[in-house]
Amino acid sequence: MQEDSSRSPSYTVACEDYVHVVEFSPFSSGTTASLLAYGGNQYVVVGTCLFQEEDMEIEGVEFNVLRVFHHDLRVDALAWSPESRLDRIPTIRFCTAAADRKLRLLTSDLQDRHEVKVMEGHTSYINHLVFEPTEGKQIASVSDDHTCRVWNLDGNESTTLRLRSPGISVCWHPEEVFKLMVAEKKGTIRFYDLVTQQAILSLDCGQSPLMSADWCLTNTIKVGAVAGNDWLIWDITRSSYPQEKRPAHIDKARLFKWSRANENLFATTGCPGKISSQLLIHHLGHPQPVMIGSAPVGSGLSWHRTLPLCVIGGDRKLCFWMTEM
Prior knowledge:
- This protein is mainly β.
- The protein has a single domain (11-322), classed as Methylamine Dehydrogenase, Chain H (7 Propeller).
- Helices cover 0% and strands 55% of the residues.
- The strands form 7 sheets. A 4-stranded antiparallel sheet has the order 1-28-27-26, with no helix packed on it. The chain has a 4-stranded antiparallel sheet with strand order 2-3-4-5, with no helix packed on it. The protein has a 4-stranded antiparallel sheet with strand order 6-7-8-9, with no helix packed on it.
- The radius of gyration is 18 Å and the shape is globular.
């Protein structure tokens, strides 16, 4: 596919600085708008997003900043708590990872209450983290230190899973709170039972390095990943080897994320190039990407909770692409 067939973003939002990570909250905010956080060198901005597809009176996108949180270092990863809501008493809770190998749990009522809890234990770079999605009382994180750690909100570790290579991605089952998926750099994806702390199933990429993996939370038999230049999809009921595998990015693939609105839709990004990063949106029924986009030195990738719309960060802006299905 040619670079010139790339589509410019459906919407953009200007930012003060370079955006390193961006995450839609996967949980309802209790209002029509979605919560979105983006992080850069020493800050996290939390705001709400409303798109014209959700409200006909809006032109494009309406982004309202709720609060800017100071962050000691550059934000490397960010996860939302299901306890973040804007109805009743507003509560914002999210967790970040930074290069000092610490997690920071930030809680705010957007008024006077503002707490930061620092969690220490990892001995190397933290690649990814996620909240337990039903109540948000625990956080799982994976690191280059060959561990996946599960933390309670008081900052104590409840579980440490020893891995055989760096932990790259971690996902929690949407209903079964004792099931965790952990992807390792050497190309293995394992599902753990947190009660027994044993692996109950494993998948194999057949190649490495695995850069990113995601569990399809609308249909949990599907798992996707990127390794080398390829994307790979598994049906976990059928085989430990991928059902489908295709080359995606010439310059190596970086991230894989399933859409939350459509179980057949997923996005991959290329490794940030010198000028731009490629975004590909794929549909399982189509041999070629259904959309190609690119963003200047883009990083991060996140899907909207209910719309077939994804966002990546970039140089002083957020870029949103709406997929017409």
